[in-house]
Amino acid sequence: MQLHHVRVHKSDENLAREDQLAWKIAEVAADPALVSEDVTEMVINRVIDNASVAAASLTRRPVIAARSQALAHPRSNGGDGSTVFGLAPARRVSPEWAAWANGVAVRELDYHDTFLAAEYSHPGDNIPPIVAVAQHLATSRGLTGSALIRGIATGYEIQIDLVKSISLHAHKIDHVAHLGPSVAAGIGTLLGLDKETIFQAVGQALHTTTATRQSRKGEISSWKAHAPAFAGKMAVEAVDRALRGETSPTPIYEGEDGVIAWLLDGPDGSYDVSLPAAGSAKRAILDSYTKEHSAEYQAQAWIDLARKLHNEHPELLVAGAIKSVRLHTSHHTHYVIGSGANDPQKYDPTASRETLDHSIPYIFTVALQDGSWNHVDSYSPERAGRPDTIALWNTVTTTEDQEWTRRYHSLDPAEKAFGGRVEIELADGTRLVDEIAVADAHPLGARPFARAEYITKFRTLAAPVMEESEIERFLALAQRLPELTAADLGGLTIVAKPGLLESIATPNGIF
Questions:
Q1: DSSP per residue over 474-502, as a string?
Q2: Per-domain boundaries in the chain
Q3: Longest Cα separation, the chain
Q4: Does 129 sit behind a cis peptide bond, omega within 30 degrees of 0 on the bond before it?
Q5: The domain 2-287 belongs to what CATH superfamily?
Q6: Which UniProt keywords apply (predicted)?
């Protein structure tokens, strides 16, 4: 890895293009370094993972709306068009709209991979827009599965490297501001574009995807799922404009009116960003981790601890047995999804699914009572409104523990942790204390996810909405990803059971 110092420059300093972060990102994207076998295997895992959670969300309202918008924009003239999750591969739409619809489907349940460091991210959000462009231009550019793998590896690399170095949430900027540049870079790798074109696309993608974090605060709306899809769509359009010779605001990061100066650490702000050196493999995807449960990633370990307590301590399940529950955890968990957020909605049984997904008091309560977690049942209004659940829920609070915060930000994978310590005080005065560092599915957890677990997740989530033959077809194709020809790429989608999507009311809009 090569360290790049990034700071604000006044206009009269004339920062050379080659010294700008966007150019350094373009250099990484244009570097034809080979993809290692373990990275290839993980790309396949994440393609399957994305399809899993997209299948589970096909009939959900935000996904229906995004899909209907995409269908209003049929294949453009420049290529073969791109597929939309749920529809037959022959049904093609313009690639930026496929990126939009498929991005919403992947993100809707907050159920795919994650990477957490200085910033938060779901790097699997890179996959829908990169696949959409690959499908659209497969024939005209002779793209293959290997080219797609290289593009996805770049998208993961750039997003994760930015997430390790630059905090957006500290300034209330939504984390998808790192996704726009990473998707643009990934598409640049996919298409074998030159550094200049990628540089302009990265700048445009960043410029058009900076927004506030209100989408993840208070009464969280369906835009939470749309925000990364929007970033992917904007990145596709940015690459299109750059290919046509259009330019971006420069320097986009370092300018005195740029992103760092006015949206992040200010005129005196600076960062050290590590990116792969020339010829180095792009391996960042191996640092990320997926979800076993449909909930905010910081809730994964807590769900696992809660179900362990459910199984080992039946006395906790007696009504009124618990006086209070205190979760000692990291700064992020406390202030974003814990009681430290000071969001009354996190204790509201009528709150939206998106809000409950970001309430660790709710999630821990239900997982403790049920000893399990389900992406539908655990969020139902009936489940949230149970009187015994509400009573216990209101006893659960969080507090920041500096040691868990330190471990959260540790750069040592063996030490990095996303859990904490629970202290339960019972009505009879006794106390129960337990802790967990990482989720069971984490690479260092009790039951790390491997190919078999990704396939099981896909089969489980796809079974209600897909025919068995379609499940097997997709799994067989995805696992041959490195061997796929241009003609095969259009099959990298999932098709719903006959009549399923047609039976669902479709909303109308402008298009």
A1: HHHHHTTGGG--TTTGGG-S-BPPTTTGG
A2: 2-287, 297-436
A3: 73
A4: no
A5: 2-methylcitrate dehydratase PrpD (1.10.4100.10)
A6: Lyase
| Of 120, 161, 252, residue with least CA distance to 198 | 252
Could you name the CATH architecture of 297-436? 2-Layer Sandwich (3.30)
Q: Is the entire prediction scored with pTM above 0.85?
A: yes
Contact between 310 and 371 (Cβ < 8 Å):
yes
For 372, counting Cβ atoms within 10 Å of its Cβ (0-12 exposed, 13-18 middle, 19+ buried), the class is middle
Beta bridge partners of 273: 4
CB 98 within 8 A of CB 105: no
Give the separation between CA 18 and CA 125, rounded to whole angstroms.
28
Q: Which two tokens stand for residue 274?
A: 């590590």
- pLDDT digits over 249-262, tens only? 999 999 999 999 99
Per-residue pLDDT tens over the stretch 222-234: 888 899 999 999 9
CA 399 centroid distance within chain: 26
Q: Are 278 and 31 in contact (CB under 8 A)?
A: yes
Q: Quote the radius of gyration of the chain (alpha carbons, Å).
A: 23
Q: How far apart are CA 129 and CA 134, in angstroms?
A: 9
pLDDT, tens digit, 9 for 90 and up, residues 53-92: 999 999 999 999 999 999 999 988 889 999 999 999 999 9
